[in-house]
Amino acid sequence: MIKIGTRGSKLALWQAEFTQAELAKIGVESELVIIKTQGDLVQHLSFDKLEGKGFFTKEIEDALLRGDIDLAVHSMKDLPTSQPEGLVITAVSYRDNPSDLLLIRPEAWADQALLKLKPNAVVGTSANRRKAQLTAFRPDVQLKDIRGNVPTRLEKLRAGDFDAIFLAAAGVSRLGLDTSDLKVLELPAREFVPAPAQGVLAWQTNRHDTATRLLLKKIHHPEISSCTNVERRVLQLMDGGCQLPLGAYCERDAAGNYHAFAACEIDGTLRRARISSSTSFGLAEKLVEGIKAGK
User: What residues are labeled active site?
Assistant: First the structure.
């Protein structure tokens, strides 16, 4: 029986139950172990005020190192690029829609406006990446921090605390949320660049747990990791975590070519880079060069 460590939010539990179902397909039984993390416990501070780059993952990783669990399931975008000594990302899932959604109250929707927001709209997000890209498109908007899980954020929007909020499309679809009372604008990932590895689950194990690692290789998606490796390498080269105002996205076309996009705020200016290549080798390094050159 494999023990799966997970956070207790609805989305985290969806991810853990999805993992259970994937393991069941290959005849492996598992059970869930729910673990509270710093990110769950500290709700009153924005991301950039929380210390450390793994505040949604550290406690789960500690349990993995102690041997309390065999496998940790993470939203890959929350996972630091450097693994604690003794732990590895053994496999990754399919990729859900990587895009961000802008959920807008009907009274704040402006059909002719950029991003469909009325002038001076109050937009809720705690992610520096989203703040940087939004204000580059719409400098008039008023940014307001928002914390809590996905259903809680939607409640705050419906209560009128905000005119609009950001959510990851993957989270909305995985939870099957009803947003019919709101206007929903999907932001193309090539233009409003998502967090590295957004929409992908990462399965983390102890480096020396060969048995679990071999099982996970059976549900691994190498075609996805070839892209998330590029995105996370950009993050690593920029030396950032959840707080860095960086978006990185890579996709492959039918011919196998890679198309990579990045956006990062440096010294108050949003810089962008886009590169296409027949190989992923050196792609992240070229993207970072492009960002730093201000292209």
Answer: 78
